[in-house]
Structure formats: structure tokens, C-alpha cells
Peptidase M23 (Pseudothauera lacus), 440 residues
Amino acid sequence: MQARKNRILAELSAHLPSGKRAWIIGSVFSISLFGVVAATATAPDASPPFALETVVEPLQLSPVAPGADSALPYIYDERVQPGDTLQSIFRRLNIDDPEAFAFFTGDELGKQAIRYLRSGRAVTAMVQADGRLLSLSLPTSRGAGRITLERDGERLAVRDGMAEAPEVVVEMRSGTIQHSLYGATDAIGLPDSIANKLAELFGTEINFHTDLRRGDSFSVVYETLYQEGSPVRTGKVLAAEFVNQGRRHAVVLFRAPDGGENYYTADGRSLRQAFLRSPLEFSRVTSGFGRRMHPIHKNWRTHAGVDFAAPTGTPVKATSDGTVSFVGNQRGYGNIIILQHRDRYSTAYAHLNGFARGLKRGDRVNQGDVIGFVGMTGWATGPHLHYEVRINNVAQDPMRIALPKAQPLNAQELTVFRTQTQPLVERLALLNRIEVSALR
């Protein structure tokens, strides 16, 4: 049928004068083209005249296996896992090479490489089909040092040098709360370090112990450091947003002209001097503020703080910048740290198992610094943290008190802030499919 149409058109053109022939052919082509354009333009608005159905058909693939005599090596790009040993790494990389194993257990450079194995660091190997090692590259320190073992014929040679500088890649994730923050971050593959930072950043606005609801959502833009194509560790959180009970909270990282870095809300309000609601990343409240039956003395007493249950050794963080006014033991409190903050505020952290190394009276601490560790010293029936917020040395309910806020940027600083953070705000808007102006 197509051939017949072409022949009819060709015969028609043969009987036309040369001038009209070109005009008519051009007109036919133009009309056809306009028809295609019109159809393309209206297709999205038209409903298809048939029912749509998804059909999944399995494809039969013929297995492909390398020949037994293949001399091509296998290349492995792995990361060191928690608890890895040289044996487990060799097994995972399918290395069966006693000579190479003996090098790492007997040579000083090899021993150094094993000592500095760190979870998350990249390991690259080239292995023959019979398990014989051709090359293996391992990190030798937390920095850029690497040691590479290479086989040159029948001899093993060592090359000790610097690895490629890590590449910083900006990644974006978003998730929805179903049961807990950790459950939601695990579901989208967000590293725990970034999840912890989210809790810290939004701890001034959201009480993660009581305020989370199913359907709350979050988005985060953060750095991941890659080395030789493999992620080695996470970097900084550049921007984040949390929608809690319909209320939107957004923060961005601002790099000031003097080189200082700080987190601000989208309208330029600093989070640095604000108070965190909780000195622990995640835990549960076991005893609130107010009158209660004392678990040891068995009589009604005023409980001047909030108790957070957590395993012994859990890090305790300063909820705001301040100065250590007391560190030591106080009878029922056991091991306690008291921090003095601005505007007549102070905080107390009691029943600690121990203090941060070198912490002493008069030391300055920043919000988020680890100052001690959960324990059960003093009057305690189990490991937990007793936390108090005081104004003029009078205890207040840490979960209900209106905590002070930091001063926002001035007009000139705010202009620089908006210019610098606009790309980050746009990334958050992209994740949430909202107008950028809604974040301002």
C-alpha cells in the first residue's frame, strides 16, 4: 500500500509543470508536517480510545560465562565493612593467594595498612580467575595515604603513596515518617550521621520525642566524599527541611565572608545560639517535670527536670553554647555537669557515667559538643540522663519552656546570605516540588 501511494504521488508530479510541481509537493509536505505538529500538540490533552494496561513479560537471557581458559582478571571495588579483617576482605574479593596474605602479615608496610583499616574506606583489587592477586590497594591512614601491592611476574612489589583527593558530591534525599525518624532515614538509604544531624538541626523547633506524627516529611541536601569512585564518608549537611504537623521548618548552611560557617533558618535566623530540646540524639522520656513518687525514697517529691532513658555510655551533648560552672559529684545527682549560658540560663546534666576527657570548670563548650556520657551514678535505679533547665537557678520544665532565640542577620548580611543560599533553597524546592518563594 505504501509503495502504491508513493507511485501515485510520483505519477502526479510527472504530469505537472515543473514550477507547479515543486509548489504542490511543498504544499503537501507542509500540510503533512502541520498535521503532525497539531497532533503532537493536542495529544497530551486527549484521552486514548483504549484502556491502558501494564504488561510485564520476562525475557529469556542466555547465560554468558567466561571460558575456563580466559586470562582476563576480575576487578573489585569494595568498601571496608565494620569488623572486617584481612581474611574477610580476601574472602569477599575472592583472593586465594598465600604469598600476598603473608606479605600483609609479615611486612611492616603491610602491617601498617591492616592497622589503619577503617570502615567505609575504599579497597580496590585486580584478581585472576584462580584467585591469584595481581594488585590490591588499601588505605594506610585517615588521610590520603594508600599502599598498593602489585605482582610483577612472579614477584610482589609495594608502592606506597598518596591516593587521589576525595571528590565531594552533593546528594539529595527526601522521606516520610511512618514510625520513627531512623526508620524513615533507613528506608531511603540516608546515613545515620546525616539523620543525627537532622535531629540536632531541628531540635530547636521540634521535640523528636513527642512531636513526630505519621506523614511528617523531610528533605536534606548533604555532601558525600568519594575516593576512587567509592563513598568513604559523609560531609556537611548543606540544607534541610522538616514538615512537622503541617508546619515547615528549613535550615541552610551559610559560609560567612570571614570563613565561619553556621546554620540559619530560611529567613536568616541563626540556630547556633539557640537551645536544643534534648541533650541526647534519640531516647525516650521516662519521667517528666513535676511532682512524682520518688523511685528510691518512696515519697512524693518535686522532680526538677526530665529523665531520658538511654544505654550507659550514650554521648550527652551541650544543648547550647556556655561555660562549665561545675563538673564533679553532687550527692543524689551523682556525676553532674552544670553549664552557664547567656541571659540567666543554665543547664544541668546528672547521673553521668563519666565526663568528656579534659573537661573542667571554666571551659567554653559549643552547642552539640559531647560533654559526658549516660550512666546511673547518684540516686538512680537504671541508666538514664537527668536534664534540667534553670533560669536564675530556678528549675523550669525543659519540654515546655520558651527557649531564647538568636538574633537574625542584619540587612547587609541578609543580602549576602540570600544570594549565597539561593541554590540550596532551590534544591529543597526541587525535592518537594514547591515554589521557591514558599521557603522565604
